[in-house]
Amino acid sequence: MKTLTITRPDDWHTHVRNGAILKTVLPHTAAQFARAIIMPNLKPPVITVAQALNYREEILSALPKDANFTPLMTLYLTAATTVEDIKAAADCEHVHAFKLYPAGATTNSDAGVANIATIYPLLAAMEKYELPLLLHGEVTDETCDIFDRERVFIERHLTAITRDFPNLRVVLEHVTTSEAVQFVESAGENVAATITPQHLLFNRNAILAGGIRPHYYCLPILKREQHRLALVKAATSGNAKFFLGTDTAPHLTHTKENACGCAGCYSAFAAIELYAEAFEQVNALDKLEGFASFYGADFYRLPRNTDTITLEKQTWTIPSAYGDITPLKAGEDLSWKLINS
Ligand code: DOR
Ligand code: ZN
Hints:
Layout: E1 3-7, E2 11-14, H1 19-32, E3 35-38, H2 49-62, E4 70-76, H3 83-91, E5 95-100, H4 120-129, E6 133-135, H5 149-164, E7 170-172, H6 178-186, E8 191-195, H7 197-201, H8 205-208, H9 225-235, E9 242-244, H10 253-256, H11 271-281, H12 288-299, E10 308-317, E11 333-340
Parallel strand pairs: 2-3, 3-4, 4-5, 5-6, 6-7, 7-8, 8-9
Antiparallel strand pairs: 1-10, 10-11
Helix pairs in contact: 3-4
Bound molecules: (4S)-2,6-dioxohexahydropyrimidine-4-carboxylic acid and zinc ion.
């Protein structure tokens, strides 16, 4: 039986929500990953250190008894965030970054930033206190085609941010385009990107060809095949600027199978297996460990994990649901399975 053992990975972009959904999804993330960057787009959003610490406690108390998992908290940037908030976050060992959602860009982003120019003093403080800025990199301009929103964000905003704050550590989250890959490759060492399993495995036909498939709808939306190929090349290149971030984003099935369905793919139940599938398709399984287990930790200046996980080559069928959540690739086969963790 073919197996693959790698250093235990971390997930550098995770939505675990709160309340009942948290209890369903957290065991999946904790079974695979040692640590995860926890997104702050709750209702209401996680804005202060005190809120992040409360949320952290809720996550810790929802963990299975035998779990060995550390949530890495983030704060949600708003127009009301102050330089003092940035300093307080930098002084808190449990807060690892700020997340910038352009207002209206995605799920629970209404409290996000409407005008990036207004938060320049905050970006200066993040640069000074060495806290990474995590970006949902899409413009919200309604006249901008949804398939162009990431590219236009780079042109209109990211180029200026990286020019004006050359030492700010920036993660362009869930990159979806060849333009994003090129931008990150040519930017300074302090600019990196996460890549999701769905953007490595699927192009936009998965959502739209032969019928609308809402469980493949996420933001930024899946793009053309040429972009998927650029992402696969970046993820499997061994370039430490690209690392694992699932953007696993659970929504109740009825809110996705809806006249106005929510954005987000649920992948935590088999995240590393989904990545293994994508890497194997281009004969690059030897590059999975760096992408999944080393480069993100290095970027966040955290120690690499020292224990391992093992995957086995084994075909299994993804269930149609986990509780009230429909997983990515529901009912379809996967060819790798986590066997010890
Ligand atoms: O598809 C997405 N879902 N993209 C995001 O940026 C947010 C996420 C969510 O929270 O559901
Ligand atoms: Zn996300």
